[in-house]
Amino acid sequence: MSSIIIFTSIILLISPISISSPLAATDGGDDDNLTVYEAIESYGFPKGILPIGVTGYELDKSTGGFKAFFNGTCSFSLEGTYDLKYKSTISGIISKGRLTNLTGVSVKVFFFWLNIVEVYTSEEELGFSVGIASAGFPIDNFEMCPQCGCGMDCNGVGVSEGKQVRKNRAERFVSSF
């Protein structure tokens, strides 16, 4: 019996144990206490690419693996132009100015729901790709976070931690060909 306890103790001592909270980054760096919004801003993205209500996130800084969690699905419309839907978990690979292999976010274009697979920044623009088509928007349109259910216009007042915000200017998705 004592040899089993000793063996188990040795295994536990030499095994790398990684316990992480979904509310913080998972690699033990200095900025483990960043909110998800601060974390994405550290990669050059505006916080408004995520709606209000993220309950936690995981970030592996060595691989760029990123996950954000919501209490359920989150849907909203931006000025009646685009309908967006976030699943309860979204994930992708994040690097400076680029979020690739994105899953869990879709946009309604005409009558079809298309998965947004990549988000990227270039100068003063934020681009979204659905594979064969992409669209760019002024990056300052994403200074404020939308809210599930009502986007940027909840009860006639824009939302961002209780502050009124201006409306976004939207452009239609265009072919990348």
TrEMBL record:
Keywords: Signal. Transmembrane segments: none annotated. Residues 1-20 form the signal peptide. It comes from the Eukaryota. This is Uncharacterized protein.
